[in-house]
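Our collaborator T.R. sent over the components below with a one-line note: 'Predict the complex.' Nothing else. No constraints on interfaces, no templates requested, no preferences about which chain binds where. So this is a plain run: every listed entity goes in together, and whatever single assembly comes back becomes the starting point for the next discussion.
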Amino acid sequence: MTFLEQIGPLKEAAIAELRAAADLAGLEQVRVNHFGSNGKLTALMKQLGALPKEEKPAAGKAVNALKNEFEAALTERRAELELTASLPKEPADFTAPGRRRLVGKLHPLTQVTEEIVRSFRKIGFVVADGPEVEDEYHCFDALNTPADHPARDTHDTFYLAGTGDVGGAKVPSLLLRTHTSSVQIRVMEKQSPPIRILVPGRVYRRDNADATHNPTFHQVEGLYVDRNVTVGDLKGTVEFVFKELMGPETRIRFRPHYFSYTEPSFEIDFSSPLTRKMGKEWLEIAGCGMVHPQVLENVGHDPEVWSGWAFGFGIERIAMIRYGINDIRLFYENDLRFLRQF
Ligand code: DAH
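Returned assembly:
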């Protein structure tokens, strides 16, 4: 058989095999069988060089035509197979129920925080903010908390490395704020009374996590400074807000306590159907008091002219009591089965 005579049957066989390939892998196999380094057509092309000179032009032309036809058939079959591969494997069931698009919701702690903020806005409070990475001055000193107070112990507070006494120069020690009370100082440094602020925010303490503790949690701080502010104002405000949050049957009581930044200081207990459900008449819920004159002096406001009150409480605790949640860690696990309930 002459060279030219071989081409026709080989070409037809190759193209028939391409058309018959059942999938993309099979198609590639056909290509290799014919044009791979050991392919049948590759072998034929190798004979080209050995042909007599006068046969070469016609043979070369025929080989080129074969190659072009093979390429065209390959491309065509590849497109067909790719289309088949991308089609659904099973027929569509148009009677199947539609897919629901999940609508997100606010985290329960965010919901409670927003509700607290809403109640305070009704009586003229605005939201203020401060840094979570604080210095000792704003977290403790300016709040009249002495250097030997246990809260300043490294067992209770997360201190950041690389600060403190650097080369004899005093650099403020940085820490993660242990309470939102530091924002009282930040705001009063910049703003003159009257001041009515509410500060929701994240705080950090070196507690081991258990059902009622977590190293990060959230607080709300309130501060009111004006002329002639009294404990009566404090009590009236707290009563109004807790009735809004915990229901109209809520009662509150103040117990004497100690905080370095307030004098006198109180702990606030409340009583409601919610506390009775937990088997208790009174539950401790917040700390508060009249802003200590030293704190006002520390931020440059005359305590003879200005007086005020402050309070602080934990947001998780409020949410746990309201919703009957018995483990604080549930708030941070992002388990949708828990979160979907709120
Ligand atoms: N900072 C206190 C705490 O973390 C809460 C608190 C108590 C805030 C009394 C106040 C206050 O503003 O007057 O436990």
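Summary for T.R.: Residues 179, 181, 221, 259, 262, 287-289, 310-312 surround 3,4-dihydroxyphenylalanine (CB under 6 Å).
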